[in-house]
Amino acid sequence: MGSPFTQRQRKFDDMRINDLQTIQWQTVNYWQQKGELPKKLGDLTDSISGFTVPIDPDTNNSYTYEISSTTAFKICANFDLTSGNIQPTVIPEPYGMERLPQEKDNWSHKEGMQCFDRKIDPELYPIRKK
Predict the structure, then answer these.
(1) pTM of the predicted model as reported, rounded to 2 decimal places
(2) Do the beta carbons of residue 79 and residue 116 sit within 8 Å?
(3) Neighbours of 75 (CB within 10 A)
């Protein structure tokens, strides 16, 4: 189990993973709606649905987002602990989101800044026609 401090760190890391999953899904939705990736995380904000981009639960800093290509992006967070054998309870990798070769485990991470490369498969997540 670990000390209360370690449990607090693990809780924050779990929250970070959940936030990154939300950002990932919102990015896919944006892609399907607009036919392009958002230029910055703030572009995902939607006043009608009430969605605002989550921030780090401990530091209140923004997560890092970067476009890699027309269908690929990278999302990053600064983790307190290495995930090791204990994985947070998270939603499985969405079908059609290809993992790049170096990404062996869905959301496993080391302590410190960790980035997750994601690539949208346009056949599984087609752009919605207007």
Answers:
(1) 0.82
(2) no
(3) 20
Taking the C-alpha atoms of residue 38 and residue 44, their distance in angstroms, rounded to an integer, is: 7
Whole-angstrom distance, CA of residue 80 vs CA of residue 8? 10
Q: How far apart are CA 27 and CA 36, in angstroms?
A: 9
Cα–Cα distance between 84 and 61 in angstroms, integer?
24
Contact assessment for residue 5 and residue 33, using Cβ atoms and an 8 Å cutoff: no
pLDDT digits (tens, 9 = 90+) for 46-105: 999 999 999 999 999 999 999 999 999 999 999 999 986 444 444 445 555 554 443 444
- Long-range own/partner contacts, residues 101-109 (CB < 8 A, 24 or more apart): 107/17, 107/20, 107/21, 107/83, 108/83, 109/13, 109/17, 109/77, 109/79, 109/82, 109/83
